[in-house]
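Kindly go through one protein, given below as sequence and tokens. The question is how this chain folds according to its tokens.

***
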Amino acid sequence: MASGEASVPHQTANSAHAKASNKKNRVKTTRTDGKKTSTTGTKGKHMGENSGGLTISRAFTSEGVHPYDEVVWEKRDVVMTNWRDGTVNFEQRGVEFPAFWSQNATQIVTSKYFRGAVGTSQREHSLKQLIDRVAKTYRAAGEKGGYFASVADAEVFEAELTWLILHQYFSFNSPVWFNVGTESKQQVSACFILSVDDTMESILDWYKEEGLIFKGGSGSGVNLSDIRSSKELLSSGGNASGPVSFMRGADASAGTIKSGGATRRAAKMVVLDIDHPDVEEFIDTKAREEDKIRALRDAGFDMDLGGEDIVSVQYQNANNSVRVTDEFMAAVEKGTDFALRARTTGEPIERRDARELFRKVATAAWECADPGIQYDDTINEWHTCPVTGRITASNPCSEYVHIDNSSCNLASLNLMKFLNDDGSFDVEHFTKAVEFVITAMEISISFADFPTEKIGENTRAYRQLGIGYSNLGALLMASGLPYDSPEGRSVSAAITSLMTGVSYRRSAEIAAVVGPYEGYAKNAEAHQAVMRKHEAACEQVETFNDVDATVLRAATQEWHRGNELGATHGWRNSQASVLAPTGTISFMMDADTTGIEPDLALVKYKKLVGGGSMQIVNQTVGRALDRLGYTAEERQAIVDYIAEHGHVIDAPHLQKDHYPVFDCAMGERSISPMGHVQMMAAAQPFLSGAISKTVNVPETATVEDFERIYFEGWKQGLKALAVYRDNCKVGQPLSISKTDQKATEKSTQTQKVVEYRPVRRRLPKVRPSQTVSFAVGGAEGYLTASSYPDDGVGEVFLKMSKQGSTLAGMMDAFSVAISIALQYGVPLEKYVEKFTNMRFEPAGMTDDPDVRMAASVVDYIFRRLALDYLPFEKRAALGIMTTAERTAELNGDDPSLVHSSETEREFAAMSASAPIEKVVEVVQDNLGATAREDILTGSRSRAADAPLCMNCGTTMRPSGSCYACEGCGATSGCS
């Protein structure tokens, strides 16, 4: 409910940006070397000496004018409903937000980040309170730590930080908004890495430490390679259990904490080195469990998300990754063997064909998306602190890679805020924003709390930061550049280099004021060498126009200046940058794309202030068309076409050579898998850490494709990589031609089987039927279903448009096809399995109290048919229940006992097959493969790739290697 209350003129984020641009000539500060510069500097003489603190000048704010007074504020209502039964699960009315913030951002911030009990006077009700709680805490800590030269500098810092958050130029990660300025522990980090030794005490400590991290809503990763293998002996003489066995206990613990937590699943990463003797068991772990899920589901067990039987499946709470070395990858390239080594002695236990082992990794990932891969030597080649210890693991999303028992706090910049109307990139204000953000992140370590003492000690000693960005995909599209193009990759490399170069230059300036990180002295030579590698990488970037050339030139200057300062003063931070998935905070910043990802699709839903939503074409599209030179009339025609079709193919006026500009992660024109890998490779040399991103490949991708992608990731210098094949968790069968060659060599047996052919069972002239009116996403229609006298459904008719229209014709044809198939004996539940969760427009809210949300009209129709014509046992196995049944289940009652019209039906004949006739005997070979295929194809094909949000029920969307909910902001990993 929008009602503007301020008397100042309305100012959008764009006009605020223009205002900031007019202040460029006011930026004047002093560097540590005494030279005048246009960026914030320091006053200092010697490393470690507090020589007065940082001098801060304004870049975005005006002296004497508070940032809050420059924008229009309005009151809104936030009401969120439960997807199961439509009841309200969150409500806060009269919250105060800027007029240019979207309803989606308002809803996410209000429900996730406002502190205090709802309905009490202690509850935050304005964005001002949230920003003040954080910005003032950072300022106070900075003053206490001697970061600022004067009180006036501290005031400017607070004002600038407030302005940047208010105008959605950047956001800290979620733990900052949860905890900073509250009575809770001041945890600011979202990412943690633990360690495990080969002792039972260490393993039990791992369980405990992981649990504490999960309890706080964060994620952790660990490398289990120090645990001796199941092929080695214990000191007592018995056989060791091996790391995979201990993974079971950790997985069960994570599942328990997840189920007892609020809205977020336990996020964890488990890593095992490729030379561990148990690596093959580790590789197959999750693929084997996926087969178990399929078999149990087909046997009638409740294997749905949150189902009572899913707990019997193991290893589902972690992302698994194999850590490979250059030695191993070279062996794969040459086709030689590779040694698996004992953990206790380091001696080879056995040797394996490297290509065969590599293929096992690719095959398992092809089948179930795990394991991912981490490139050990590349990671450690760019390690600033090798004297302290090697990097062995990562956080759950793989972007934070550093020493064991450490943490990283994240923050991300909204790149679209720095795109000027003329298509240029605002280097100066981007530089200033990075300075303010990295300074604030550094200050936060001074007052932060940590889940364990070891993590606290290492984080304070090495001060790892993770600045990153969001909205790269939108920036490239708005600039008229294809994501998968040399020009797009050049812009990405230049911006990433500038961001990290400014961050480390700023870190060196801070080191001149308060000293370098504690572990710097013993790692100084290695740290400086890595900084020189970053600087040298700038020279390898090819530029294509003034935009990327200008940004890259600025980046090169920043690396040069920063390295000069660092050679004298050291650096305050051992790590500066990563590229995180940025799920929730991207929604908070109203970003169209997350992290380094391209746009997901050209059409999305926009939430409205008064409730509901509307389908819109991404605003980036219009800006891109303008940049490409199309007239207003042409732009409108193209946008209208996209709104109707969801893609640009054959759009009026649009030149075909401009199609690639609008390629997305999904849809008719999707970016090639290698396009994702090459974009990661362009940014990787300019990041301290790694990149959270999953390379999506089509369902038709082969195991060989996975091998090629993982191999190219190594060749192109990535640190980590994960690949996801569409529907790979929905039970797609492994084709013999795509499986390991050994599978084709398995012995087969010949056995006679009987082929049956169905006979059509027609409906009588007079048959019972029912008609249901429905509305899905605003589109109305009618569903008529007719039954046999014994209640088996045998006919379906759909009406959604005027007779003679294309839609009406397609609906008639679809109805006839379904009806004939039902009469030939295709069970209704098979249609329900295939068509539920099929996604296309119209979609969204329905007027059916038992089916609150539908992914499409087809999704709704078959959910409704399932509720009307399938027995409870079959529906429950498919995850389809009435509102009353779900309520009973939530209350701990038996939902099968809920009284409904079902009790009046004879379920024995429901969805019965037609009579069948034995036709001929045939010979069937290779029964082993056939049996496997039967198990796989019988799985839950209705399930979507992305999970449903445990909080609001909205289908989550990919965000890096995690998932994020656009409805409430919940994430499955870092944020």
About this structure: The longest strand covers residues 88-98.
